[in-house]
């Protein structure tokens, strides 16, 4: 299917199928809701303009994620982005209990956020993440390990703080 010749409903269905996944990925990389929205819009625009054909739904998903990751990285490198502070007022976590974990993930450096998101939230294997991000598998494994270590330290400290606070009260 080429998007330029498809009916509006078909492209709308395509967007609906992928918008949440792309938004979560872009948010994981950029750390900013407005930037993530812009990246997703640009990813769909590229899909419409290039009108690639996909043999399997997995290829479609992988292509879109690759475009989204590349656009997110470009966004992080932009001159104006470096002069702003991120403001995350909404979280893509389904449950309120997940918000704390997501806040800690969002505090990680972008390269760690991206691999954590793709591994745990999108279910990709290390090999697939390496292909999507253009990194070596060893680099992806290293980023996953470092991100897990950082999260473990922060979450352990927070848990100890809550326990100490609870004992005082």
Tell me about this structure.
With 169 residues, this protein is an all-alpha fold. The chain has 2 domains: 1-90, RNA polymerase sigma factor, region 2, helix turn helix motif (Rna Polymerase Sigma Factor, Chain: A, Orthogonal Bundle); 94-169, Winged helix-like DNA-binding domain superfamily/Winged helix DNA-binding domain (Arc Repressor Mutant, subunit A), CATH 1.10.10. 76% of the residues lie in helices and 0% in strands. It has 8 helices and no strands. The protein has helices at residues 8-30, 33-50, 57-77, 79-82, 96-106, 110-121, 126-133, 137-168. Helix 1 (8-30) crosses helix 2 (33-50) and helix 2 crosses helix 3 (57-77). Residues 86-91 have low confidence and may be disordered.
